[in-house]
Amino acid sequence: MRILLFAGLLTLGPAGLGIACADSDGYYCIGRGYLAYQFGMAPLPVAPHHLYVLRVGTTTGIAEPEAFELPQFQVHGLRCGEGWIDVAAFTAIYRVTLDETARPTGFEVRPFADGQKIPRDFFPQLNLGMLSRAGQDLTLQRVSLGVKEGGGQFLLEMTALLIPSDRCRTALTTRIVETDVSGSEIRERVIFQGRGTRACGG
Fold first, then answer.
1. Helix or strand (DSSP H, E) at 6
2. What's the CA angle centered on 193, arms 190 and 85, to 5 degrees?
3. What is the 3-state secondary structure (H, E, C) of 27-45?
4. 189-201 pLDDT per residue, tens
5. Which of 13, 50, 170, 199 is the most buried (most CB within 10 A)?
6. Other CB atoms closer than 10 Å to residue 145's CB: what's the count?
C-alpha cells in the first residue's frame, strides 16, 4: 500500500492551503544523509526565515524535516558539508552547525572582508521553489539523495504543469520520494507546492 507523508511547509493563505510564491528562495544542497533547503517569505509582516534539514536514512524512511530559524536576509545559495551548512547572504556567510544526526544546533555569522564577493562554489544555484529548472522548462527533474540498504533509493523530484490561464507561470510540486528495490514508489513527502516561473515571449 502506498503511504503518503506530507510536510507542513505548504503555504497557508487566509482560506487554507494556498499557492506559494517564494521569490528567489528555495535554494537547496545535498549532504551525506540529508537534504537542506530554505524558504524566507518576506512580505510585510516579515515572516520567519527557515532553513530545513531533512534526513534520509538507509532504513528509517523519510524523516520529518527539522526547521531552524535564521535572521531574515536574501539568500544567494547554499552549500552542504560534514557537520555544517553554509547559507550565503550578500555580505556574509551564515554557517549552521549540525550534530551527529544532522540536526541543526546553532549558527555563526562570518562577515565578508571589504570587497569580498560570494564564493564561486555557491554557484550554480540549485532551487526547488519558484526558480527551479522544472518550473522554468516544464521538465521532470530528479536528483538522487542516496541508496537504501537492501535496495531502493531516495529521490528529490520536481514536476511542473503549465497553467493555461498564465503561460508565464507553472504549477510546481517538489517532493521527496522513496522507492523500493524494484524502483516502485512507496512513500513521498511534499516539501513545496506552488507557482513556478518560466520565460515567455511577448
1. strand 3-6
2. 65
3. EEEEECCEEEEEEECCCCC
4. 999 988 888 877 6
5. 170
6. 19
